[in-house]
Amino acid sequence: MKIHPLLGFIAAALMLPAHAQQSGTDAARDALKKQEGDTDQTTLLKQTLTAVDKQYSLIKRGKLAATYDFSYSYIGQEKINADITNGNLTLFNIENDSSHTITNTVSVDYGVRDNLTASVVLPLVSKYSENPAFSGMSHSIGDIGVGARYQPFGVQRGRPSLTVNSTLRLPTGKSPFKVDANQDLATGSGVPQLSAGVAVNHIVDPVALFGSVNLTYSGAAKDLNQIRGTRVLTRVEPGMAFGFGVGFAYALSYGITTSVSIQESIARGTKLYFRDGTVSRTKTQTSGVLNLGLGVRVSPKTTINITAGIGLTENSPDFTLGLSMPLSF
User: Residue 100 in 3-state DSSP?
Assistant: First the structure.
């Protein structure tokens, strides 16, 4: 083994034997190597992607993983509440609405195969609202989700990774079309939702680029009997929605990563059917959010991710805050 001239000079000065010179060099080199359990930047980026958006990572066959997610969102707005009967304006007032929503979610993933992961999502929703109709709190289970993520191609270093994902949301939360707006708050969508999409991520250490597109189809809410002003709502047919997102994550060090992403969703208008035969349709809804994230490695196997979101459109939450961390059994 070739000895660095500086090390040879120091060894000669100290009159060390040759084998001691070599062992000292090897010890110094080993001390600088990545030790067992250390996390490099590429691994940390993968952990960040996994926690921020579960669709970017799969787990090994037969393995079980759980994640806890906390999210908070705030919506504040002024809206005009109007109702027209027989061509006459029977109701007109400006309402100030303020809504705070806290969601605690536990997600469980199971590796069906190395390239196929099944998941179950259980959300618990707490909502507080202040408006002229009702001011109070509501606690309930949200819409339970079951889904799958599939990687059709093997992951190769230096190449983009493709993941196909699908999720079915069940209307297990309180439906906004069945609660009395003067007495309670909804904690679910009220309709079943099926979404499918494709996600791509590419790690160019120390940067990870990622993006996704998805389509969401919602079933109809039937047999309703909800009073809306002077009319009774009997059926709701939500429109199809298209969403996409792009962003990147950057490893500042072996323990800290940052991420920036933009998400947007465009949904067609919803059809509302009333008992008097009237059919109304809402306008197209566009929701855009800018997310700023921070990932902190607290142990060799645990990274906590914190995300702050800023609404970019009228139909988006004004502010969101999220925290994601893996759970160990």
Answer: strand
| Amino acid identity at 221 | A
Q: List the one residue out of 129, 136, 125, 135 whose CA is nearest residue 74.
A: 129
Question: Spelled out in words, what is the top-level CATH class assigned to the domain 40-327?
Answer: mainly beta
Structure tokens at 311: 């609404």
Non-local CB neighbours of 41 within 8 Å, separated by 6+ positions? 205, 206, 251, 254
Place of tokens 């969102």: 73
Write out pLDDT tens, residues 165-201: 999 999 999 999 988 877 888 899 999 999 999 999 9
Q: Domain residue spans in the chain?
A: 1-33, 40-327
Quick one: the chain helix, strand, coil %, rounded to 5?
10, 55, 30
Q: Does this model's pTM top 0.90?
A: no
Report whether 317 contacts 60 (CB < 8 A).
no
Q: Judge whether 150 and 163 are in contact, CB under 8 Å.
A: yes
